[in-house]
Amino acid sequence: MVMMVGSIAAASSCAVSRAFAAGPPAETQPAQCTLKAGDTHTVVAIIDAQTLELDDGSHVRLAGIVAPIPPAFLTAEAVWPPEAQAIAGLKQLLLGETVELAYATTHNDRWGRRLAHVFRTDAAGREWVQGWMLRHGHARVDPLPDSLACIGELLAHERQGMKADLGLWKNPAYRIRWADAPQRLMRLRNTFQLIEGSVRKVAVTRGRLYVNFGDDWRSDFTAGASRQSPAFGQQALAQLQSLEGKRVRVRGWIERRNGPYVELFHPLQIETLDDGPQPAASTGVASGESPPGSKGPTARVPAEAQPRAGGDEKKRPKPEVPDALDL
């Protein structure tokens, strides 16, 4: 059984079918992600802001997102408000409720937890838990190799929470970072960050590609990917090369490879930013936080997040697959 999740920023719906028919032309068809439907359980406990315990004793890790975790300098007894808010939200949404699991290619993580997309089901309908977390600012999209399914849909939900300045986006600890401050970025290694900057050069070697944000690759911020990755074929490479001179936002875990570095597993880890005028209060940038050399905050919401005429919601078209069922 296969589950298709429509790209809907404000609500989630799924269809189940045994076969797929041709849909509308690519230019009019909304992006969709395909998941394999799993089993149904009751949530008996919330382990942390990203992990559930089910009635069979198994633990489920919510795929594709990263929830707030306390900074390393906090004591074990200290309460980290963004994490506490995310846990409270999950308890209210899921504790004692029936959920359906759906999987991409990987069913378990390295610790044996189920790695799944989770849908709460009740008489009122169904709710995509990852989408709910992102829309309420309780998580960010984290494209790791075992969680690449539905990245476009997840980002659409994240933009809702970011645009509304909800949850973690109000906390200065989760502000947008700046690519032209590599020393600050290096202090944030081993943490997940969103980083904005202008692409200086896209370099391609035999085995890897690099998106450089400065002239000195030994010290400046860089994002890179393996050319062996199926996600970075010729089309993705051409798109990355077209970013030279443009302002973008990169997401990922900061590590040290000469200077600060983010490994890319999916092209959507880099978002092109709108160069038009932006609202003063936007996107979780801390008050007064500005990129070096600027005169004020310049964080930009991607163009897709800007209000559209007639409202933000985009209705999903009727299923193109005969006998498809809405769950």
Summarize the structure.
This protein has five helices and 19 strands. About 15% of the residues lie in helices and about 30% in strands. It has helices at about 80-95, 130-135, 150-165, 180-185, 235-240; strands spanning about 1-5, 15, 30-50, 50-55, 60, 65, 100-105, 115-120, 125-130, 140, 175-180, 190-200, 200-205, 210, 220-225, 245-255, 260-265, 270, 325.
Would you spell out the secondary-structure blueprint of this structure?
Elements: E1 2-6, E2 14-17, E3 32-48, E4 51-54, E5 59-62, E6 65-66, H1 81-94, E7 98-103, E8 114-122, E9 125-128, H2 129-135, E10 140-141, H3 151-164, E11 177-178, H4 182-186, E12 192-198, E13 201-204, E14 208-212, E15 222-226, H5 234-241, E16 247-257, E17 259-263, E18 270-272, E19 325-326
Parallel strand pairs: 5-8, 11-12, 15-17
Antiparallel strand pairs: 1-2, 1-3, 2-19, 3-4, 3-7, 4-5, 6-10, 7-8, 8-9, 12-16, 13-14, 14-15, 16-17, 16-18
Helix pairs in contact: 2-3
Notes on the structure:
- By secondary structure, the protein is an alpha+beta fold.
- The chain has 2 domains: 2-170, OB fold (Dihydrolipoamide Acetyltransferase, E2P), CATH 2.40.50; 175-305, Nucleic acid-binding proteins (OB fold (Dihydrolipoamide Acetyltransferase, E2P)).
- It has 5 helices and 19 strands.
- Strands 11, 12, 13, 14, 15, 16, 17 and 18 form an 8-stranded mixed β-sheet that branches. A 5-stranded mixed beta barrel has the order 3-4-5-8-7.
- Helix 2 packs parallel to helix 3.
- The radius of gyration is 20 Å and the shape is globular.
- It starts with a strand and ends with a strand.
